[in-house]
């Protein structure tokens, strides 16, 4: 699903590489934690997958796309197949829960009857069936993140990227969100989650890829957050 071969990224304004000769393979259906201190290259990794940045060196393949060489007009097709979830939810404040989810389908031209059918289904999947007509500000943080996950998942992406999705949530709510991401992963969607959350990584025992100064320093199949424990 994701293949990086000797990928480096050097930003124009910077001397040291943000990613430095990174080679990683992620199979379809895997659940991967991407960890590392601030500045280690996690966001750069995610931005490369979305073609928001291009590699300075190396080859990057997502599904069947050679992302580094993708022509500009093919980029939207790639991004349609990747769902994104962020720490700060990024919901549209003037739209209801259902409208936020529907909007993700409208912008890619899905017909109205499909949207009408699919939105309630995905709201049920994330446990928000009673809240379709609420506004984002009427929801708790955990509920807002569920909306964001519903929106990211409603188009059945091949890959779900989550950047610190529990960063603004208390531990119990974070656990609920992780159960939901696991559920989405069980549908076959590959999940890549950048996080600083030790307890979640330690509880889930999934694959852990650790970056440090742009290099992969650890890749454990059933990892924990800290080494040597
Ligand atoms: P992380 O997400 O792990 O905090 P980043 O990928 O944001 O790491 O950053 C990796 C390195 O690249 C850091 O040294 C950061 O300062 C630098 N960097 C990130 N984005 C840019 C940019 N747009 N321009 C220049 N340097 C950047
Ligand atoms: P949490 O303790 O998880 O932050 P809240 O106390 O914020 O949750 O919310 C508890 C419940 O009340 C949620 O189901 C939420 O939808 C509802 N709620 C919160 N704020 C509002 C509001 N301003 N208007 C209507 N319902 C709200």
Automatic annotation (TrEMBL):
Pfam families found in the cross-reference section: ABC_tran (PF00005)
Cellular location(s): Cell membrane
Gene Ontology biological process terms from the UniProt entry: cell division
Name of the protein this chain belongs to: Cell division ATP-binding protein FtsE
Family annotation (SUPFAM superfamilies): P-loop containing nucleoside triphosphate hydrolases
Lineage per the UniProt record: Bacteria, Bacillati, Actinomycetota, Actinomycetes, Pseudonocardiales
Self-association state and partner proteins as the record states: Homodimer. Forms a membrane-associated complex with FtsX.
PROSITE patterns in UniProt: ABC_TRANSPORTER_1, ABC_TRANSPORTER_2
GO CC terms in record: plasma membrane
């Amino acid at each position: 699903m994701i293949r990086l071969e000797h990928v480096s990224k050097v930003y124009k304004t910077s001397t040291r590489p943000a990613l430095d000769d990174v080679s990683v393979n992620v199979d379809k259906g895997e659940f991967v934690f991407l960890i590392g201190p601030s500045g280690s290259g996690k966001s750069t990794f995610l931005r490369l997958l979305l073609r928001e940045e291009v590699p300075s060196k190396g080859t990057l393949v997502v599904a069947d796309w050679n992302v580094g060489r993708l022509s500009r007009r093919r980029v939207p097709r790639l991004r349609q197949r990747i769902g994104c979830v962020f720490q700060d939810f990024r919901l549209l404040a003037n739209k209801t829960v259902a409208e936020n989810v529907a909007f993700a389908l409208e912008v890619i031209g899905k017909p109205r009857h499909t949207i009408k059918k699919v939105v309630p289904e995905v709201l049920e999947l994330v446990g928000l069936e009673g809240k379709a007509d609420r506004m984002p500000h009427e929801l708790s943080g955990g509920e807002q993140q569920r909306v964001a996950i519903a929106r990211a998942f409603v188009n059945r992406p091949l890959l779900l990227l989550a950047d610190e999705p529990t960063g603004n949530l208390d531990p119990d709510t974070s656990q609920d969100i992780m159960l939901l991401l696991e559920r989405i992963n069980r549908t076959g969607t590959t999940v890549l989650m950048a996080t600083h959350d030790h307890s979640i990584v330690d509880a889930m025992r999934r694959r852990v890829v650790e970056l440090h100064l742009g290099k992969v320093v650890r890749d454990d199949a059933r990892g924990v957050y800290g080494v040597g424990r």
